[in-house]
Specification:
Layout: H1 2-48, E1 52-56, E2 73-77, H2 89-92, E3 97-102, E4 109-113, E5 118-121, E6 131-136, E7 144-148, E8 154-158
Antiparallel strand pairs: 1-2, 1-5, 2-3, 4-6, 6-7, 7-8
Length: 164
């Protein structure tokens, strides 16, 4: 009987530790997905000399105009040849070629902390809006920061640190 009680206690401790490991990995995977989307957007902007925006999206094809990116995001390439943004493309993404769409997230929160809700790169690879993204569990634990600098550098760091 004592062995069963001890076994139950050890199992309970192991399961809670495993749940926190899964939560940390879920946050880290989201950070990596966001980093790769931003890197792809910059690469495509430079390669094709077309502006690319990255924005929150609930349908995977247009921007929703929100700083809450937990509902998913999308990278869209503008099809004009100028190397700069035209019309309303920067705010809505309407008519853009979809480069990558990320679905809604479960149990992870992504918030854009910048002076706007849409970022991306012009046809020369410079960001249209520098800032940071805070990625965490819904309770704020295991927070990570994804940074996009004015020079176009994209990196992640643990915690809610400010970008350099």
């Amino acid at each position: 009987m004592i062995a069963i009680v001890v076994g139950a206690i050890l199992l309970t401790a192991g399961v809670s530790g495993f749940e926190s490991l899964i939560a940390r990995n879920r946050v880290r995977a989201t950070v990596n997905d966001l980093l790769s989307t931003l890197a792809l957007a910059r690469q495509e902007a430079l390669r094709d000399h077309h502006p690319v925006i990255v924005c929150a999206s609930s349908n995977g094809s247009t921007c929703k105009g929100s700083s809450d990116w937990s509902g998913g995001w999308v990278a869209l390439e503008e099809q004009n040849q100028t190397g700069s943004f035209s019309g309303s493309f920067r705010s809505t993404g309407a008519g853009g070629r979809i480069l990558r769409a990320h679905p809604a997230l479960n149990e992870v929160v992504v918030d854009a902390v910048m002076n706007g809700v849409t970022t991306g790169f012009n046809g020369y690879g410079f960001p249209i809006l520098a800032g940071r993204f805070l990625v965490s569990e819904p309770n704020g634990k295991d927070a990570n920061t994804v940074c996009l600098t004015v020079s176009g550098e994209i990196y992640a760091s643990a915690g809610t640190t400010l970008c350099r």
